[in-house]
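Lecture notes, unit on protein representations.

Consider one protein chain, 151 amino acids long.
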Amino acid sequence: MDIKITKARKSDVHEILRLIDELAEFEKLTPPDEKAKKHLVNDAFGKKPAYHVILAKIDRKTIGYAFYFYTYSSFLARKTLYLEDIYISIEYRRLGTGKLLFNKLIDIARKKGCGRMEWCVLEWNKNAIDFYEKLGAKELKEWKYYRLSLE
């Protein structure tokens, strides 16, 4: 299968939202409501995007995506590419799609002058953890991530 990695366009919105719903089901979470979906679209495809999306496609079918944005490291004095989500439809896993998406993200990070990439993974997602470790990623055991919800 010929898998292509492309920058998402506004015309890809319905496929992106479909995959977000798939991810929510996979993670046993409530998918974004209609209001949140409108924000997702505006925040990705508005004048000043809050985040970016790359897509994995076979022929014209969208089979996966990665959402990313930039943070900044005061110690490296460089940007960090933060991977918010990476998802591949279950029936298209184990084809090398994740590695293609990751390699594209690494290329983007290098071109943008980033010093590193970071992301979180759910502790129960053994397949994802194994995948990341095969790529050479290391778990940051000394850091704990916290979240303060503002809603």
